[in-house]
Design brief:
The protein is of the alpha+beta class. It is built from 11 helices and 18 strands. It has helices at 6-14, 18-40, 43-60, 70-84, 103-109, 113-123, 129-136, 140-159, 166-177, 186-198, 220-255; strands at 265-266, 287-288, 367-369, 373-375, 382-389, 397-403, 408-411, 414-417, 422-429, 439-447, 452-460, 466-474, 481-488, 493-502, 505-515, 520-523, 533-541, 546-551. The strands form 4 sheets. The protein has a 7-stranded antiparallel sheet with strand order 12-13-16-15-14-17-18. Strand 15 (505-515) and strand 16 form a beta hairpin. Helix 3 (43-60) packs across helix 4. The longest helix is centred in the middle third of the chain and has 36 residues, at 220-255. It starts with 5 loop residues before the first helix and ends in a 5-residue tail after the last strand.
Length: 556
């Protein structure tokens, strides 16, 4: 469905197509998260604002006009949620940004939240005036006028001067528009999307069209708690039913004659009759209570058990059988009560040795992370990753996490995670402790002395310099020209030079010197540049990135 337009996906979603809505989510959630993070300055709040915005957009699908774009639905909801939290949110301030590269971002943080939200939706998120009109609920012409005024006012504030000229304002707005977007963590996107699809209404979209600006969507956590309540109640009913069935089966087993635990037993043809109490022989088919009877010798001593082989007990003669008289001098064999055949005790085979039982292997919880590398822009200052206990059968796992560099802090630094659970580790970068030289820096977040690791990277600089102003002039016609330029960089501009051609051959460079009092790079007059053409001012930063602007010296 990736090739379908948003309007086609919205129509399919209204008809109950969950895959269409999932495609809209994948297409726009990162942008909603980036906008929410800019407005709130907090990873957890940004996740909540973006998630609630998609809940409201999903519930509003049934009542929207075909002319309303999905972006205006999502960003309208995200803007309302973000402004509702503006009083308690802590957005990055001037003290939290360093270097000229972040001057524009620092100025943006001082804008009124309503102005900042519209500026970001228009410049960084790409909403046109028609979509802004839908977000604000105003006419398209009014939205166009409002955006034009906003660009002029915000451009001057971003440039740092209320009276900045048009070029400077446009440059400041272009710098703001190019600020790096921040994508939502993958675990956040998976959690939010699964929660949305759990409450997917299918074809049951209402025509009411969402909620007002002051109402709030139930959070996905509240949805999970509500969904768990009937499951707990149903589990209790199932347990009670299972116990009732077990009790019934046990009662039946006690009453069935064929059961090994029966209280009564039938003496039918398939069973030998039990010994009768009182000398009476039981009648076939009668249920007889089984009473175990111990056999005794005539003197009351217990019968010794036979050892080795089988032993035969003497039996009482049958009635009518003559008894043989023993010969004189012999010892008569006493007759006694019939003894049962003793059970022989089996003799163990010689040399048999019992096999020892191997002790069970101890279960050790396994910890892992949801990513291996995390890039945190220095201007943003913080992000997070997930620490997971992936051993479901080993119970809770404790952890301790440390950083390899002083500029990286991790919170919480220790704790416990239940089986199958996860904890969010917040990564914070102290910009003042990152080396001042322009470049990329990395640190390692190590869990339990290397059981799991995440490499955290950040950049000092990395953007090319910008020439804000540049020009040249001659004190007299056909005389040597002088030059002046103003340039900025995310870390520092280390040099500004003049290049030109003479007679079709490249010439230069001529180096300009920074004048701290004027805040300009100046130089000249340069005799070597007399009669030159195709003049260019080139600014260079510490890692060799540069910016160039062509000029035509005046009065030359």
């Amino acid at each position: 469905m990736d090739e379908l337009a948003d309007s086609e996906l919205m129509a399919a979603a209204r008809a109950g197509d969950r895959e269409a809505f999932a495609t809209l989510f994948a297409r726009h959630f990162d942008a909603a998260y980036d906008f929410s993070l800019l407005m709130t300055g907090d990873v957890e709040r940004a996740s909540r604002v973006a998630a609630d915005a998609f809940v409201e957009a999903m519930e509003s699908l049934g009542g929207t006009r075909d002319s309303v774009t999905f972006r205006s639905l999502v960003f309208g909801a995200a803007r309302r949620e973000a402004l509702a939290e503006a009083g308690s949110a802590t957005r990055p301030g001037v003290a939290e940004v360093e270097g000229a590269a972040e001057a524009v971002r620092g100025a943006a943080s001082r804008l009124d939240p309503k102005q900042l939200s519209l500026l970001d939706l228009h410049l960084r998120q790409g909403l046109d005036s028609d979509e802004i009109a839908a977000v604000l609920g105003i006419g398209k012409a009014n939205a166009a006028v409002m955006l034009a005024r906003l660009e002029k006012v915000a451009g001057s504030r971003l440039a740092g001067a209320a009276g900045a000229d048009e070029d400077t304002r446009r440059l400041a707005l272009a710098v703001y528009q190019s600020l790096e977007a921040v994508s939502a963590p993958s675990v956040t996107k998976e959690r939010v999307l699964s929660g949305l699809l759990l409450r997917w209404p299918g074809r049951g979209f209402s025509g009411g069209g969402g909620r007002g600006a002051d109402s709030r969507a139930p959070t996905l956590e509240e949805d999970r708690q509500k969904a768990a309540a009937p499951a707990v109640a149903l589990g209790g009913v199932r347990l009670a039913a299972a116990l009732a069935i077990v009790a019934g089966l046990f009662g039946a087993a006690l009453l069935l004659p064929a059961s090994p635990i029966a209280l009564t037993r039938s003496n039918g043809a398939s069973h030998q009759p039990a010994a009768a109490v009182g000398g009476e022989t039981p009648t076939r088919g009668t249920n007889v209570i089984i009473v175990p009877e111990r056999s005794a010798t005539p003197n009351g001593s217990p019968t010794p058990a036979a050892t080795g082989g089988s032993a035969t007990a003497s039996a009482t003669p049958s009635p009518g059988t003559p008894t043989k008289t023993p010969p004189p001098g012999s010892t008569p064999t006493p007759t006694g009560t019939a003894l049962p055949t003793p059970t022989s005790t089996p003799t163990p085979e010689p040399g048999a040795t019992a096999t020892p039982t191997r002790p069970p292997t101890p279960c050790v919880p396994a910890l892992s992370t949801n990513l291996g590398i995390l890039n945190v822009p220095l201007a943003l200052g913080s992000s997070s990753f997930q620490l997971l206990n992936t051993s479901f059968g080993c119970g809770a796992a404790s952890f301790a996490i440390s950083s390899s560099e002083p500029w990286l802090t991790l919170s919480p630094a220790s704790g416990g995670i239940g089986a199958g659970g996860a904890v969010s580790i917040v990564v914070t970068i102290a910009a003042g402790q990152v080396p001042a030289a322009e470049g990329t820096y990395s640190a390692t977040a190590s869990v339990n002395s290397g059981a799991a690791e995440v490499t955290v990277t950040t950049q000092r600089g990395g953007q090319p310099p910008h020439i804000v102003l540049a020009g040249g002039s001659c004190s007299q016609p056909v005389g040597p020209p002088s030059f002046a330029a103003s340039a900025s960089d995310d870390v520092a501009v280390i040099g500004v030079q003049v290049l030109f051609d003479k007679g079709g051959t490249p010439q230069g460079p001529l180096s300009l010197i920074f004048d701290g009092a004027l805040g300009l790079w100046t130089g000249g007059p340069f005799d070597a540049a007399t009669g030159g053409t195709n003049f260019r001012i080139v600014a260079t930063d510490g890692i060799g990135l540069s910016d160039s602007r062509s000029i035509v010296p005046s009065n030359c």
